[in-house]
């Protein structure tokens, strides 16, 4: 039984480590500086690809070296920017919803107060009608 718990603890620790490492690597790779570095690394092999004169080698360099290295970081940066925009919109919507909720609470309170006043006026009117009926009879 204890070996199962030990195994789960070990796997849990490994999982936490993997998540932290993935987060750190993603944070580093998803920057424009990383895209610039990858572009520089990719450009190192460009002269060799061009000197080969082979169309397949040049296309392979573009597709496999340049695009994969550079676009990876740029796409990650773009996704980060987009998610920040979405997060901002969510926050704005949340604050607007809270504002509307407060307005609804105030409107409900005012409606209750008006209802109390209308009941009071109604009671006064009924009392006046009774008084008039007594005077008429």
What this model shows, in words?
The protein is mainly α and 137 residues long. The chain has two domains: 1-30; 31-108. Helix content is 95%, strand content 0%. The protein has four helices and no strands. The chain has helices spanning 2-29, 32-44, 46-52, 55-136. Helix 2 packs antiparallel against helix 4 (55-136) and helix 3 crosses helix 4 (55-136). The protein is elongated, with a radius of gyration of 36 Å. The model has no long low-confidence stretch (mean pLDDT 89).
Share in helix: over 70%
Q: So what's the overall shape? A: elongated
Q: What is the β-strand count?
A: 0
Number of helices: 4
Radius of gyration: 36 Å
The assigned structural class equals mainly alpha
- Mean pLDDT equals 89
| pLDDT < 50 runs, ≥5 residues | none
- In terms of DSSP E residues, the strand content is under 5%
Q: Largest beta sheet, briefly?
A: none
How many domains, as an integer?
2
Q: What separation lies between the terminal Cα atoms?
A: 95 Å
Give, in order, the helices and strands.
HHHH
């Amino acid at each position: 039984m204890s070996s199962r718990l030990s195994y789960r603890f070990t796997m849990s620790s490994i999982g936490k480590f993997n998540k932290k490492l993935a987060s750190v690597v993603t944070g580093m790779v998803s920057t424009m500086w990383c895209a610039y570095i990858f572009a520089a690394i990719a450009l190192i092999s460009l002269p060799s690809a061009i000197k080969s004169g082979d169309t397949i080698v040049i296309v392979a360099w573009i597709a496999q070296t340049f695009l994969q290295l550079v676009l990876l970081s740029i796409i990650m940066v773009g996704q980060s920017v987009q998610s920040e925009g979405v997060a901002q919109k969510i926050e704005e919507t949340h604050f607007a919803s809270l504002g509307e909720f407060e307005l609804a609470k105030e409107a409900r309170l005012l409606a209750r107060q008006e209802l109390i006043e209308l009941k009071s006026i109604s009671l006064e009117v009924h009392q006046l009608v009774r008084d008039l009926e007594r005077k008429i009879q």
